[in-house]
């Protein structure tokens, strides 16, 4: 897919817009396209926009749903925290989110004290994350959480394979985008609609699972819709089912 145009709505942020263009390979846009997607940098944040289909998509760690989960989300009893192994862990595990997307699960884990490396190969998703982490770092309520989040723009399969033994995380978290057809699934949400158009589905999930198993010291956690197809490969050690989401666990060692 050709580089997306970036349209600047806040002239005083031109230097930051240029940084995003240089870092992620976007192009300057002078006018809103008649069709397709574009990035828009305003006074508050960076957004992924399109004509008519849905509202703007952006990553957010300070306000809205992120704030609610931070303040009233249920702590270590949250499903993703339980799947990672936080509920009974005495030492917080290091986590790699190998399909970071908009970083929602990564933020939950970082808010609970984990150090999380967010790996994202899409320049669009990575730019949205970069912008959101920067905003969180400047807010006193979330600065300490943002400090525990490290963003890596890379293909997770190659990046995981390149890790030295000393750098391997305790847990690798994988939440791939599959070409689901269930209208009630996460694919029906506006951000997933946009991501599937701009980024595409994760058709190499089997290779990613193998890379994750090779890199994780303790466990791999795969997040899927409850009735979604499993990733091709070894059977999970444990399956945790919720009302709409399922976690497939590939356990190598117990967390301390």
Quick summary of this structure?
31% of the residues lie in helices and 20% in strands.
Question: What's the end-to-end separation, in Å?
Answer: 44 Å
CATH superfamily grouping of the largest domain: Vaccinia Virus protein VP39
Task: Give the overall silhouette.
Answer: globular
Number of strands: 11
Count of folded domains:
2
The H-and-E topology, N to C, reads as EHEEEHHEHEHHEHEHHEEE
The secondary-structure class comes to alpha/beta
Helix amount: 25-40%
**Integer average pLDDT:** 90
Reported CATH architecture of the largest domain: 3-Layer(aba) Sandwich
- As for the CATH topology of the largest domain, it is Rossmann fold
CATH class of the largest domain: Alpha Beta
Low-confidence stretches: 181-188
Strand order of the largest sheet: 7-6-5-8-9-11-10
How many strands, which pairing sense, and closed or not: the largest β-sheet? Answer: 7 strands, mixed
CA-based gyration radius = 18 Å
Number of helices: 9
- Percentage of residues in DSSP E strands: 15-25%
């Amino acid at each position: 897919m050709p580089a997306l145009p970036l349209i600047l709505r806040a002239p005083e942020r031109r230097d930051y817009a240029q940084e995003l263009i240089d870092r992620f390979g976007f192009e300057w846009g002078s006018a809103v396209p008649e069709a397709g997607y574009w990035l828009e940098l305003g006074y508050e944040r960076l957004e992924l926009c399109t004509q008519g289909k849905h509202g703007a998509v952006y990553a957010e760690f300070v306000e809205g749903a992120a704030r609610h989960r931070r303040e009233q989300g249920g702590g270590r009893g949250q499903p993703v925290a339980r799947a990672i192994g936080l509920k009974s862990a005495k030492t917080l595990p290091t986590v790699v989110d190998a399909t970071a997307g908009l970083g929602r699960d990564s933020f939950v884990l970082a808010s609970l004290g984990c150090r999380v490396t967010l790996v994202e190969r899409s320049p669009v998703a990575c730019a949205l994350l970069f912008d959101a982490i920067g905003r969180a770092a400047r807010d006193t309520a979330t600065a300490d959480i943002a400090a525990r989040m490290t963003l890596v723009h890379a293909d997770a399969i190659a990046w995981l394979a390149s890790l030295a033994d000393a750098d391997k995380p305790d847990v690798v978290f994988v939440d791939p985008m599959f070409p689901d057809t269930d209208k009630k699934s996460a694919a029906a949400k506006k951000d997933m609609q946009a991501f599937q158009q701009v980024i595409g589905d994760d058709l190499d999930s089997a290779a990613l699972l193998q890379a994750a198993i090779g890199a994780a010291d303790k466990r791999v956690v795969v997040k899927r819709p409850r009735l979604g197809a499993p990733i091709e490969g070894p059977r999970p050690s444990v399956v945790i089912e919720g009302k709409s989401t399922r976690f497939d666990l590939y356990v190598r060692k117990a967390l301390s």
